[in-house]
Amino acid sequence: MKKDITLTPSQRALAEDHLSVVHWVIFHHIQVNESICGLSYDDLFQEGCIWLCRAAASYDTSIAQFKTFAKTVVRNGLITYCRTICKKQKRMLFLEICEQVELMADGQKLSTLTDDFDATVSYLEIVSLLESVKKDFSGVARLGVEALQLKIEGVGISEIARLYGVKPSHVGAWISRAAQKLRDNPAFLAGLDRDLLKSSR
């Protein structure tokens, strides 16, 4: 939707003359975070310029002054963009934890990894979500989902290995396999997005 914006020479000049609007919106309405891909100042400014061009392309002189109109368009566009980036970041954080969980010290609970994630997602909801998609998995991946459920509940890798009668390294391999499968499971990703949305309200 934001690609292939064609501007007339006058619209292009209008956008170029109001680049300061993008900086103003970022400074007053957006939280820059250089540590998150997509939320650095440069990324936000680039995205804001796209919305500034959209404002120029749709501007009607009878509505308001362009600067006022552009501030609203750029602000709304950047807020939507930031929400999308944050949602993806939370989802990727969970999946990264899935892949790294076998590297954790035995007995360490998943909740000790990050306070931000702990505040964002209910572990009970995640365990329930994993249970609901487990039927879509078989073999090693299914074992990995079961092991991941136990790990999220605080059961150590060695203890999980004893329950299944295997070496701890096998459990870690199961979880890695399950994480790969979860990345491509539409039901899981949709359910995770719903949980993240619910927890952010």
Helix/strand layout:
Blueprint: H1 9-16, H2 19-29, H3 41-58, H4 66-100, H5 115-120, H6 123-133, H7 139-152, H8 157-164, H9 168-183, H10 186-200
Task: Sum this structure up briefly.
The chain is mainly alpha-helical and 201 residues long.
Write up what this structure looks like.
There is one protein chain. This protein is an all-alpha fold and 201 residues long. It folds into two domains: 80 residues, no CATH class; 97 residues, no CATH class. The protein is elongated. The two termini are 27 Å apart. It is built from ten helices and no strands. α2 crosses α3, α3 packs across α4 and α4 packs antiparallel against α9.
Count of the separate structural domains: 2
What is the arithmetic mean of pLDDT? Answer: 76
- List the secondary-structure elements in sequence, H or E: HHHHHHHHHH
In DSSP terms (H or I, runs of 4 or more residues), the helix count works out at 10
- Helical amount: over 70%
Q: Can you tell me the residue ranges where pLDDT is under 50 for at least 5 consecutive residues?
A: 99-121, 196-201
